[in-house]
Amino acid sequence: MGVNLAQVEGAYKVSFPHMGNYCIPVRTLAEPLECEIVTPPKMTRRTLELGARHSPEFVCVPFKYNLGNYIEALDIGANLLIQAGGGCRFGYYAEVQEAILRDLGYQFGMVRLLGGFDLREHIRDFRAVNPRLTLWRALKAYRVALRQTKALDQVEELMRKNAGFEVEDGAFERIHKRFLAELDKAREIRVIEDIERRYLAEMASVPIERPDDMLRVGIVGELYVLMEPFSNYFVEKELARRGVEVHRFVTVSHMVENAGKHKDAYLRRMIELADPYLKYHVGADGTESVAMTHKLMRDGFDGVLHLKPFGCMPEVNAMAALQRLSREHTFPVLFISYDEQTSETGLATRLDAFCDMLRMRKGKPSR
Ligand code: SF4
């Protein structure tokens, strides 16, 4: 069990790292702990600077963002941190971050969720924090959080595909903001379903104009930089501003659907889809990056963006296969690597050049 509560003084105040708007379902999940929930301050440049200053230099950038979130949360009163763990370096995040924060002098408890999506194991860990936690209460929170996640993913997917063509600037953003506020308060499945239905309908009725030279681009890569817009410099919004329909498969709903007992079958499907560019699983999200790029190419997409944190080995493995696929099919793939030195202007220039090149290709008859 990965729980260390030895240093907590007084009532628990629980916190967790940010990833996109998933703080909404995470708050729902944390409610059965019956303690104060401290959402870390909004991500800013300071978050990354704090995280980077206290992290090993070559650790991947999601580690630095998470550490920055923890420092900012501890500074506003949190005393209990939650971290998950995975098959790559993610598996070491919790232990290393705990050691760094203790060296910095913080006194706090840590819950390390090491069982992937194994709910029973998580409930055992959470019972160390709240011994009154019942299976029924935890399952109810889990169902509600899952439904919120699904609503979030559905609405944001519709937004990704259409926001680039809105007639009135900011129309989708305004609806999205109201949607998040309502979703955050909802704790009943039928209420969440109603919110999802209403906001999908409202977004579908926003006036849009798709130009003749519209581009369809897919985004693949490492899950954190895909799903945390601050860490990818709001790349989806930037593409939308350039009149691009953006597609992304990786969401938390997608991950939950293909986890646990479905994981092996899903990986086999991904390896088949990645054939002939991969024969084996290359770790974390790397196989999926190749499989989905292959699919997007066959589905007639104009290009793909591959996003990864600097030094992310699974995605470095995927890059060799992606380069071969891109070369053999003359299929455009833009590789973007993120760390704390990434320049916003440099990224904007590369996106401009990539979109211009895709538009020029579209103007040419295919070979
Ligand atoms: S997938 Fe890559 S970036 Fe993410 S934790 Fe693993 S090694 Fe780091």
How would you briefly describe this protein structure?
The chain has helices at residues 23-30, 45-53, 61-75, 90-103, 119-129, 135-162, 171-185, 189-204, 223-227, 235-241, 252-257, 263-274, 286-298, 313-329, 344-363, and strands at residues 2-4, 13-15, 36-37, 80-84, 109-113, 215-221, 244-248, 303-309, 333-338. With 367 residues, the protein is an alpha/beta fold.
Descriptive notes:
The protein is of the alpha/beta class and 367 residues long. The chain has 3 domains: 2-133, Rossmann fold (3-Layer(aba) Sandwich), CATH 3.40.50.11890; 134-210; 212-367, Rossmann fold (3-Layer(aba) Sandwich). It has 15 helices and 9 strands. The protein has helices at 23-30, 45-53, 61-75, 90-103, 119-129, 135-162, 171-185, 189-204, 223-227, 235-241, 252-257, 263-274, 286-298, 313-329, 344-363, and strands at 2-4, 13-15, 36-37, 80-84, 109-113, 215-221, 244-248, 303-309, 333-338. A 5-stranded mixed sheet has the order 1-5-4-2-3, with helices on both faces. The longest helix is centred in the middle third of the chain and has 28 residues, at 135-162. It is globular. The mean pLDDT is 95. The structure holds iron/sulfur cluster (SF4). Iron/sulfur cluster (SF4) is lined by residues 60, 62, 88-90, 222, 224, 284, 309, 312-314.
Give the helix tally. 15
**How many β-strand runs?**
9
CATH topology of the largest domain: Rossmann fold
Distance between the termini: 58 Å
The distinct bound ligands, ions and cofactors come out as: iron/sulfur cluster
CATH class descriptor name of the largest domain: Alpha Beta
In one word, what is the shape?
Answer: globular
